[in-house]
Amino acid sequence: MRLEDILYRQGFGTRRVCAGLVQQGHVHVAGAVQTEAGALFDPQDLLFVVQGQAWTWQEKAYVMLHKPAGTECSQKPSAWPSVYTLLPAPLRQRPQKGAVQGVQAVGRLDQDTTGLLLLTDDGAFIHRMSSPKKHVPKVYQVTLRHPVSAQMVQRLLDGVVLDDDPRPVRAAACEPTGPSSLDLTLTEGKYHQVKRMIAAVGNRVEALHRSQIGGLHLPADLAPGQWRMLSAQDLALL
Ligand code: URA
Questions:
Q1: Ligand 1: does its nearest atom lie under 6 Å from the Cβ of 111?
Q2: Residue 193, ligand 1, Cβ within 6 A
Q3: What topology is assigned to 3-56 in CATH?
Q4: Is the domain covering 137-213 a CATH 3.30.70.1560 domain?
Q5: Which part of the chain is CATH 3.30.70.1560?
Q6: pLDDT (tens digit, 9 = 90+) per residue, 146-196?
Q7: CATH T-level topology, domain 62-132+216-237
Q8: How far is the CA of 194 from the centre of ligand 1 (A)?
Q9: What's the CA-to-centroid distance between 17 and ligand 1, angstroms?
Q10: What is the 3-state secondary structure (H, E, C) of the chain?
């Protein structure tokens, strides 16, 4: 593939901008500066450096972000900064079918929720992960306003009725982790589901953190606001 096309496909701007980056000596491949925009490379696993930043070719980008509190998952947030501002420009500019699309969040977390958020430009992956049939478990660490009781845990496991659906929603698992905290595992993703389930059992969420999706845990060394690409092993855990 031509070097300018490699950069274009990875989100470094229009083909013209990418050709300019190469011609102006801003791109290194295999440790050597490349100034020929049409130079051919096999993109598979290609390592390259653009303006001092190292990149590896990704056919599709799969990203995990430690979402901090006070950020919105929308591209056009109404009141808080968007989580997308935490990602580098190429991840936000990756083209799809000729248009700038960038990676998209796989589901959303509330503004005040922290923790594991996945983003990708693989539409089929988003569809699979969000499908109600797939039942991908998600673990939430919940801090409650009032103490947790055995009866409350049992009601969450048995199922509670939320206002928009007569069918009860159940927690797949519910483990108290302290006097007023619990880990709740859900396999659905209804709007404000944790907060509404906790309200339905007479308590209130004070803080909410998503620690796990499928078998993938938020790594302890990924600080709030930081992101990294998912490895093949990470993807297998989903
Ligand atoms: N449930 C909620 O209530 N909020 C979230 O952000 C995620 C799940």
A1: no
A2: yes
A3: 3.10.290
A4: yes
A5: 137-213
A6: 999 999 999 999 999 998 788 999 999 999 999 999 999 999 888 999 999
A7: Alpha-Beta Plaits (3.30.70)
A8: 5
A9: 40
A10: CEHHHHHHHCCCCCHHHHHHHHHCCCEEECCEECCCCCCECCCCCCEEEECCEEEECCCCCEEEEEECCCCECCCCCCCCCEHHHHCCHHHHHCEECCEECCCEECCCCCCCCEEEEEEECCHHHHHHHHCCCCCCCEEEEEEECCCCCHHHHHHHHHCEEECCEEEEECCCEEEEEECCEEEEEECCCCCCHHHHHHHHCCCCEEEEEEEEECCEECCCCCCCCCEEECCHHHHHCC
